[in-house]
Amino acid sequence: MIQIGAYNRLKIARRTDHGMYLTDGQDEVLLPRKFIPEGIGEGEQLRVFVTTDSEDRPIATTQRPKAVVGEFATMQAKMVGAHGAFMDWGLDKDLLVPFAEQFRAIEEGAWYVVRVELDTKTNRVFGSTRLGKYLKGDVRNLSEGQEVSLLVTDVVPEGARVVVDSAYFGMVFPDELHERLRIGESRRGYIKRIREDGGIALTLSPMGYQGAVDESPRIVERLRREGGFMAIGDKSPPEDIRREFGLSKATFKKALGHLMKSGRIEQTFHGIRLKENGNGKP
């Protein structure tokens, strides 16, 4: 069965004036002439994306959408019409986000994180910015300290809202935002805390001793760029440490301890210094 809103590997069945008909052995779908690769003929296979045309008929394309059904992607609103907002998702036919599927009113030219979905009654592919409908509330499979993927969906005074592992909503609070995040940005993060209500608080910095050890080469590299010395140490204010290294004070202190124990740096009253003439090697 040909899947709408997904990639399909289909065989070329026949050629017509309008293009080539592709088949999975049961159903057929038209690949318009402008998308036919040069030198390909009947009986060969093609990987195509299948969507619907303006008359809701299945249609194949060799263009690559930013996301398929069930995925998220960052898209720009090209225009707002009578039925909703039309988003640029990489195909000639724009993706409609109906008004009923908008978390807040979409503005032309702005960027949004969009979930691609399929209306199984009409076989129409549509978009939604009401992301919570498609995310899980059960967080029992998650654990504190776990490394996860983050997709930034909104940046507000309370912090950055993110989709966690394409399945959960989470929040990076201001005390963990040591750099500016952008809507649509993908990052690696770590689960800092899971609240009783299922809310997920995240950090961008690795957690625990091993996480601090993994950050230590970055401290050494920064010291090299600064000529081997920086006027900062484990007694410095947390905001100074976060500004300079993007780390919490606790993680920074663990990383310094590891570097001092390995003989790569020394800490003085005035700051931290690379040992061995600044090469950072034990």
Rg, rounded, reads 26 Å
- According to CATH, the fold-level topology of the largest domain is Arc Repressor Mutant, subunit A
Question: What summary fits the major beta sheet?
Answer: 5 strands, antiparallel
Question: Could you report the average pLDDT, rounded to the nearest whole number?
Answer: 90
Let me know the CATH homologous superfamily of the largest domain: Winged helix-like DNA-binding domain superfamily/Winged helix DNA-binding domain
The count of domains is: 4
What is the level-2 CATH architecture name of the largest domain? Orthogonal Bundle
For the largest sheet, list the strands in their spatial order.
3-2-1-4-5
Please count the beta strands (DSSP E, at least 2 residues each).
Answer: 18
Number of helices: 3
SSE pattern: EEEEEEEEEEEEEEEHEHHEE
Distance from N terminus to C terminus (CA atoms, Å) equals 62 Å
* Strand percent estimate: 35-45%
Unreliable segments (pLDDT under 50, ≥5 consecutive)? 277-282
CATH class of the largest domain: Mainly Alpha
Helical proportion? 10-25%
**What overall geometry do the principal axes of the alpha carbons give?**
elongated
Judged by helices, strands and strand pairing, the structural class is mainly beta
Domain Conserved virulence factor B-like winged helix: 218-274
Pfam family, one: S1_2
Protein name: Nucleic acid binding protein
Family: Belongs to the CvfB family.
